[in-house]
């Protein structure tokens, strides 16, 4: 094997990624303000202007995961265009990219369909509706925790009832999305807190305080990451994990850069050779572990032959086991890296103040019952039933978001039993372990310039013990240091006394810094994790074990009988073992539940309620007290704004229905306050002139009640809520306090 030309060409010290062209999440506001904001100021745009805007929007959509000139499989299944591959598809992609770019430009606001109509020709109305609805109901726009979303969330659920088991990232994401779709939701959480395997521990006291991550910690890839969107909505700063990661040997000596670079280069070359070997072996590679192949190739190519190089090589093996939460002897040589093409691009980041800030924002206002471990889940044609101790909860559907480790332990009984196909996938997939020792010190003795540093171990069997340290002093509020334990060492960690573990980690730190004359003090507080023995997780995160494949993630994501649904990091083939993967799976299942609910209602021939929770009764109630009534025209607007550009509705009544209420025709359309004022200025006694102005001068199209509910459901919901004068906090309280029938509490 060839050696690297210089140490600058060596890859970063984390799991290798496939490069993708992306935009920086933090730079999107400025980018789109410049590209899209000018449209309102610039009435006439040249062909070159339009082409540049279209290209910019396509690149932004690409960063979110949309292909440049193709449809997603989900879009094809949704039937967003009538014919694939033609002009309509190309036009749809342009409209879709425009909508994505508009919302990504300001993720704090709820993007309305009417706002898209301002910048896209009415000739493409059907594509606007197709693209907007797909993006909205599949969680690509208008998701998250922005306080400005409150008026668009229905006060009362009309779509049906859903029980969500688990208040981790997947469960919280799904619950919030389902509420916005108009479902009644109840979350059952076994712990006394939300977050699941994302757990920020507050260490220290009044004088010395720090927030340290004991579970999921790093936002892995900021570009297009939904957690980056949440951070933007909450105005939470992100700290890039700096690339500098010095390695020290067991004597505390800094590892030579050339030796370090050579071993890392050889290690990555061996991973490339693994790819070649499995392609030659074809199906036989499914039965072999990554560890077995790597060791065979290491010996064959003479990599890390002496003892010092072997320690360095072992460090990289430990880092690989950390990335996969599994021993290399268990990882599939064929599929261990099957998700690499989908990894998020961009920097790896810490969240200032801790991940609990995202978790708390997601959990705020949700109806969550803590301390409710689920014993049994029953599902059938009549709905679902959840048994927790002596209590029974019933609903239309259920979303199970418990970790794969809990499913493997059969901690929850399913009636009827899960399909054999799903149970087999649960058994095949791996669920590994990563443990930590979190320490709060009196001072930052390791130096302010470091976010990470590593330490080599003497023996291969202990290669994962305290091999990597994360420094949280830049984001936690105090001098906090976390030591990672991966692979076989993480398993032994579970059975070792905390005092022994602390003695070992301090010995290692003093071995590094003592020779430099730096005194390593005793920590103020120490916490050791035990994720493997935690009955609500039984491990850390998933990996593809020998005999498994990425298909098993898809099988875990499959719903059962249109009643039982599954979410969590172990249900996403593209983003397993990540916090953003868990969050995205929650959005995915919320969309799936909405689709199934609509399907069931249509088969039962029940009237379909819109996601916004509005129906014909809400519409009629609004026009009982119109803001403006002129002859046959009545107008209603949002009382919380007097912006002349803000939208409202107008109703036109035909025939004399005051004498015969059963003989009436009422049509509606959406218009601005400015347009309404123009109509109001006309001769009050002439209904014809007003109607002519409405349709001919202003070019507005009248529609029936069902059509206006479809196209303007969100707007109607906002106006109705505003006219009732209810704030978001009141909505949440109401949802928590009202009985959730058909959710029953026994």
TrEMBL record:
It comes from the Eukaryota. PROSITE patterns: SWIRM (PS50934). GO terms for molecular function: oxidoreductase activity. Gene3D superfamilies: 3.90.660.10, FAD/NAD(P)-binding domain, Winged helix-like DNA-binding domain superfamily/Winged helix DNA-binding domain. Residues 51-152 form the SWIRM domain. Keywords: Chromatin regulator. SUPFAM superfamilies: FAD-linked reductases, C-terminal domain (SSF54373), FAD/NAD(P)-binding domain (SSF51905), Homeodomain-like (SSF46689). GO terms for biological process: chromatin organization. Residues 1-26 are annotated as: Disordered. Belongs to the flavin monoamine oxidase family. PANTHER family: FLAVIN MONOAMINE OXIDASE (PTHR10742), LYSINE-SPECIFIC HISTONE DEMETHYLASE 1 HOMOLOG 2 (PTHR10742:SF373). This is FAD/NAD(P)-binding domain superfamily. It comes from Arabidopsis thaliana x Arabidopsis arenosa.
